[in-house]
Amino acid sequence: MIVPTHIADRLLAECLGRPRAYQELGRLCDTVGGRVAGTEAAARGEEWGAGLMRAWGVPSVAFEEFPIRAWSRISLDARVTGPNGWALTAVSHGLTPEAADAEGPVVDIGHGDPEDFTAHAASLPGAMALCDEGAGAGRRKLHRMEKLALAQEYGASGMVMISSASGMLPRTGVCHRLGADIPAIGIAREDGLRIQRLLAAGGTVRLAVSMRNRLWDGSARNVIGEVPGSELPHEVVIAGAHLDSWDVAQGATDNGLGCAIVLEMARALAALGERPRRTLRFALWGAEETGIHGSRTHVERRADELDCIAGVMNFDMTGDPYGYWTPGRTEPGAMLRGLAEQLAPLGMQPDFSSGAGLHSDHQYFMLEGVPVVCLAARLEGEGGRYYHAAGDTFDKVSQAALCRAAAVGAHTLWALADAPERPFARLDTAQVRAMLEEAKLIDALRAEGYSGPALG
Ligand SMILES: [Zn+2]
Q1: How many angstroms separate the alpha carbon of residue 60 from the centre of ligand 1?
Q2: Is residue 348 within 8 Å of residue 322, measured between CB atoms?
Q3: Cα–chain-centroid distance for residue 270?
Q4: How close is the Cα of 201 to the center of ligand 1, in Å?
Q5: What CATH number has the domain bearing residue 400?
């Protein structure tokens, strides 16, 4: 047994027998709803998280405030113009301009890969660049921000992204870190397919976009709770999830769900009669959606502490757990193998993956070589379909999966925090570089302006 029976019994009783977080997640979704970083709703969400940590016995709870470029939407009108035009079902992307009124012919650039832009270079100036969310076969999928940067570079007057989910579900998401120069919108798949059919038939389609948004210098907060370690309090194990969300829905699966898992684990571990050797830190990160600002700030402000972090678990749209993901570490080690065996009744299997990935709150820890230990999990049902769209509501959350993820996560945290020797060493710069090369992420990091040690 990796986690001793008397500890495991308590964790299972709390997470599966008398869980509390699912109900509290419902309260967040219904009374706060969408929580874009820097808005009053985000602040109410932060109070929700801090209040629960305190009520559930986490000994120390504090806010970690940091400045951000904040954004909120005011209005959008997007339509195909002309005698057979129609109003599009569309949403503005995050960090689009305060005011933009653009009109132009639509140019279909497929996936919006770099070579798609090159192939249409002559027709893009002044045009609306239409692309989907995907990438060509075998290509790394560019982030929305990378496609927008290319659209700006090629002189497009706007970027229009087709949702990959059907059901009139346009998707939002950040398109620029500070503020884009041109409007960018997500449109319903059905609208996008109609435009593509008209273009393929040889027609010209013109599109007009008029948007108003609010942009300001604001701030966001991480909520940080700690349970001090019994023997090695300066060594830390972190469990975090981003609390901010997009405003078009309730931020239920992305990512109130992850926050609920973190809070349930905090409650279960704080309720134990004993403490593990190392300190447990529970983090509800702010401003992930608008550029991973909260966890990056934490990493920057605690640079001298990074050697003392024994593990970081990130929960972002975490569904039913079945394995472990340890980026950059092909050998999961005896502890995770043992945990997978001990937790098999909860659905865990000896399923270990190690390919690096970006764009959530593990990113800046991973880039510093800090051990990242995440659950591999399946978001069952329709949760993934409503990503960044109006359907991301509380009814999509599976209580059973949430409880299992909290139980598995709490066991994993205990094991990381109480192991006599640290299960994972920090990766050095060369090892981080090799991990990023292996996953073909060097270009993606350069594109987002990252210039840390691993990129030399
Ligand atoms: Zn997320």
Answers
A1: 26
A2: yes
A3: 26
A4: 38
A5: 3.40.630.10
CA–centroid distance, 388 to ligand 1, in Å, is 9
Res 36: pLDDT: 98
Q: State which residues have CB under 5 angstroms from ligand 1, the bound ion.
A: 254-255, 316
Are residue 42 and residue 83 in the same domain, yes or no? no
Indicate the number of domains in the chain: 2
Q: What is the 255 CA–ligand 1 centroid distance (Å)?
A: 5
Kindly report the number of other CB atoms within 10 A of residue 84's CB atom. Answer: 9
Give the model confidence (pLDDT) of 216-229 as tens digits: 999 999 999 999 99
Alpha-carbon distance 349 to 69, whole Å? 42
- DSSP label of 11: H
Q: Tokens 């599966």 belong to which residue? A: 16
On whether the pTM is more than 0.90, the answer is: yes
Q: Which of 168, 190, 214 is the last residue of a domain?
A: 214
Task: Give yes or no for residue 382 having a pLDDT over 80.
Answer: no
Look at residues 53, 51, 62 and name the one whose alpha carbon lies nearest to residue 221: 62
Of 42, 416, 8, 455, nearest to 222 (Cα)?
42
Confidence of residue 456 (pLDDT cuts 50, 70, 90): confident
CA of 387 to the centre of ligand 1 (A): 9
- Residues 311 and 349 grouped into a single domain: yes
DSSP letter, residue 94: B
Among 160, 106, 156, 155, CA closest to 133: 160
Tell how far the Cα of 74 is from the centroid of ligand 1, in angstroms.
Answer: 23
CATH label of the domain that carries residue 124? 3.50.30.30
Grouping H, G, I as helix, E, B as strand and the rest as coil, residue 211 is strand
pLDDT band, residue 393 (cuts 50/70/90): very high
Q: pLDDT averaged over the chain? A: 97
Domain that includes residue 200, residue range: 73-214
The position carrying tokens 């302006």 is 449
* Exposed e or buried b per residue across 277-304, where buried means at least 16 C-beta atoms within 10 angstroms of its C-beta: bbbbbbbbbbbbbbbbbbbbbbbeeeee
Nearest to 290 by CA among 189, 220, 345: 220
In a domain, residue 223? The reply is: no
Please write the tens of the pLDDT for every residue from 84-118.
Answer: 999 999 999 999 999 999 999 999 999 999 999 99
| Neighbour-count burial of 75, counting CB atoms closer than 10 A to its CB (0-12 exposed, 13-18 middle, 19+ buried) | exposed
Q: What is the pLDDT, as a whole number, of residue 48?
A: 98
Q: How far is the CA of 209 from the centre of ligand 1 (A)?
A: 27
Q: What is the amino acid identity at position 151?
A: A
286 CA to centre of ligand 1 in angstroms: 11
Of 214, 247, 282, the one marking the end of a domain is 214
Indicate if 202 and 77 belong to the same structural domain. Answer: yes
> Of all helices (H) and strands (E), which one includes residue 363?
helix 363-367
